Amino acid sequence: MTKVIGLTGSIASGKSTVSEFLKAQHIPLLDADVIAREVVEKESEGLQKLVLAFGKEILQADGTLNRKKLGQLIFNQEEKRKTLNQILHPLIREAMLRKRDEAKAQNIPLLVMDIPLLFETNYADEVDEIVVVAVSPTVQLQRLMDRNQLSQAEATARIATQWPITQKMVLADVVIDNNGTKEETREQVEAWLKKLS
Ligand SMILES: CC(C)(COP(=O)(O)OP(=O)(O)OC[C@H]1O[C@@H](n2cnc3c(N)ncnc32)[C@H](O)[C@@H]1O)[C@@H](O)C(=O)NCCC(=O)NCCS
Ligand SMILES: Nc1ncnc2c1ncn2[C@@H]1O[C@H](COP(=O)(O)OP(=O)(O)OP(=O)(O)O)[C@@H](O)[C@H]1O
């Protein structure tokens, strides 16, 4: 039987950092951000639908998605974000659950699904256990500003599009505190893995 872990947190809380530690332990991972890129590849159904909704301005000269431009649109205008979510979330969900079921059919013992919007888009009942990677609001804001080269106002707007981390922590089975060093986080991940096995 496959044990399915849902890994989540808030934007820039450290999900990818935790995923890297899991990959180093050869744990199979399904990343919703990766799937979200696959469903909008050049000439895909997803990209065609986005162009119909937002216009050709969201494309780069080579016909691929201009992610920076679309990000600026959807993180600042709620209506546009809702439209994007309505187009992409069903495509992402279909692929995520199909791949999860393939892993189950192969009897892989452990599968981690990294899903930034796990609670917001109702994946809680699709996994066996939920791990939340948490940071304080101050640390989150600073790391997001640094990583994406955003102003405080831009980063705050992005954070506001997701549930507050405290709300997610309440619903978690396990909380990984990523306020400290990456090494301290790695130790928590390894301790959790030990308990699992
Ligand atoms: C808007 C896009 C093109 C911006 O691309 P970009 O390369 O700059 O960012 P990336 O894809 O790496 O996402 C970074 C983070 O933003 C957050 N995020 C992404 N989409 C959303 C959304 N619709 N609502 C709230 N937060 C979001 C997540 O925490 C994600 O980890 C891209 O994020 C996207 O296609 N989003 C829609 C798909 C989606 O909802 N993905 C989340 C997976 S469940
Ligand atoms: N413990 C840490 N100490 C210092 N920097 C960190 C730590 N954890 C993560 N970071 C940095 O913070 C930023 C956000 O981390 P990461 O990309 O892992 O978050 P994420 O939750 O995957 O983000 P997103 O939701 O945007 O996909 C990155 O630049 C990362 O290198």
From TrEMBL:
<dbReference type="GO" id="GO:0015937">
    <property type="term" value="P:coenzyme A biosynthetic process"/>
</dbReference>
<dbReference type="InterPro" id="IPR027417">
    <property type="entry name" value="P-loop_NTPase"/>
</dbReference>
<feature type="binding site">
    <location>
        <begin position="12"/>
        <end position="17"/>
    </location>
    <ligand>
        <name>ATP</name>
    </ligand>
</feature>
<keyword id="KW-0963">Cytoplasm</keyword>
<dbReference type="Pfam" id="PF01121">
    <property type="entry name" value="CoaE"/>
</dbReference>
<dbReference type="GO" id="GO:0005524">
    <property type="term" value="F:ATP binding"/>
</dbReference>
<dbReference type="GO" id="GO:0004140">
    <property type="term" value="F:dephospho-CoA kinase activity"/>
</dbReference>
<keyword id="KW-0547">Nucleotide-binding</keyword>
<protein>
    <recommendedName>
        <fullName>Dephospho-CoA kinase</fullName>
        <ecNumber>2.7.1.24</ecNumber>
    </recommendedName>
</protein>
<keyword id="KW-0067">ATP-binding</keyword>
<dbReference type="GO" id="GO:0005737">
    <property type="term" value="C:cytoplasm"/>
</dbReference>
<comment type="function">
    <text>Catalyzes the phosphorylation of the 3'-hydroxyl group of dephosphocoenzyme A to form coenzyme A.</text>
</comment>
<keyword id="KW-0418">Kinase</keyword>
<comment type="similarity">
    <text>Belongs to the CoaE family.</text>
</comment>
<dbReference type="InterPro" id="IPR001977">
    <property type="entry name" value="Depp_CoAkinase"/>
</dbReference>
<keyword id="KW-0808">Transferase</keyword>
<keyword id="KW-0173">Coenzyme A biosynthesis</keyword>
<comment type="pathway">
    <text>Cofactor biosynthesis; coenzyme A biosynthesis; CoA from (R)-pantothenate: step 5/5.</text>
</comment>
